[in-house]
Amino acid sequence: MMLEKISNCPLCNSTELELHLTATDYTTTLELFNIEKCTSCGFVFTNPRPTSSAIGNYYQSDNYISHTDGGTGLLDKIYLIARKFALNWKYNLLKAKHTTGNLFDVGCGTGEFISHMKSKGWKVTGMEPSAAAREKATLKIQQNVHANLDEITQQFDVITLWHVIEHIHLLNETVLKLKSLLKPTGTIFIAVPNHESPDAKTYRQHWAGYDVPRHLWHFSKTTMEKLMVDNGLKIDTIIPMKLDAYYVSLLSEKYKNKRQNIITRIIKATASGFISNLKAKRAMNYSSLIYIIKK
Ligand SMILES: [Zn+2]
User: Fold this and answer.
1) Distance from the CA of 261 to the center of ligand 1, in angstroms?
2) What is the edge-to-edge ordering of all strands in the sheet holding 32-38?
3) pLDDT per residue as tens, the chain (295 positions)
4) What residues does the ion ligand 1 have nearby, CB within 5 Å?
5) Measured in angstroms, how far is the CA atom of residue 47 from the centroid of ligand 1?
6) d(CA 230, ligand 1 centre) in Å
7) What is the distance in A from the centroid of ligand 1 to the CA of 33?
8) Which secondary structure element, helix H or strand E, spans residue 4, and what is its range?
9) Cα-to-centroid distance, 172 and ligand 1 (Å)
10) Phi, psi (5° rounding) for residue 237?
11) Per DSSP, which regions of 94-245 are E strands?
């Protein structure tokens, strides 16, 4: 395994890092990874982490593929229903800001979202580093899907990163690149897990939102705000993704207790998701948040 150690906090450059917790890679290797916290600005990140050339190995999992392609188990079915609901929900979210326009989806996976948006009359551009997913996306939308951010030069009304920015090695560089690709009136939508959510605090090292080592960065509202402001962008609104509390609780229950029967798991996860959403309301600390970002 090719690991690299980050010695300076990418947000504030401090070298004072402390152990936040140690988490397991439950989806592929069962390897342990440390998650560190900057004592100066509070940014939390996986450290050390696989290099960008080694990280591909950690995406080779049947679990991972079934979630993008649709399996046959009960949980896969629930996931597919939730995904259909989520596609429409995201469409309406975008429509509230821009009636139509051109859209760039970073980390578009197998192209579900851009395909949906294209069917609604949007001009779409996708970027996906995984060759297998990119191939499927290309077939689905019947147009080229880019492999790399550097290939993109035009400007967009909307840029979306649905649970993607936490996977990208070059953090500040990517945010700056996205800013350059955004029209002056454009909007960026960034969805990420929130490690300060009630369900993250309940499940701690078993919390599925950590998803090490694929998740390199673990954001809170404070650290996302700092990342944006320091790169010349601003947060316009923050929106909760309430379904994520249920999905993340379901996975976290599985990581915590592998032998648990599936009905018990679903009941516990439903209760956990419900309670998390309830507790999260006052401080807007939901399991996952969407940051709506402007220039
Ligand atoms: Zn820091």
Assistant:
1) 41
2) 17-24, 32-38, 44-46, 217-218
3) 699 999 999 999 999 999 999 999 999 999 999 999 999 999 999 999 999 999 999 987 655 544 455 567 777 787 788 788 889 999 999 999 999 999 999 999 999 999 999 999 999 999 999 999 999 999 999 999 999 999 999 999 999 999 999 999 999 999 999 999 999 999 999 999 999 999 999 999 999 999 999 999 999 999 999 999 999 999 999 999 998 999 999 999 999 999 999 999 999 999 999 999 999 999 999 999 999 999 9
4) 9, 11-12, 14, 38, 40-41, 43
5) 13
6) 12
7) 19
8) strand 3-4
9) 13
10) -150, 155
11) 102-106, 123-127, 156-162, 182-193, 217-218, 234-240
How far away, in angstroms, is 254 Cα from ligand 1 center?
Answer: 32
Cα 180 to Cα 11, 97, 176, distances in angstroms: 20, 19, 6
Distance of CA 68 from the midpoint of ligand 1 (Å): 34
Q: What structural domains and CATH numbers belong to the chain? A: 62-211+218-294 (3.40.50.150)
Residue type, 48: P
Amino acid making up residue 67: H
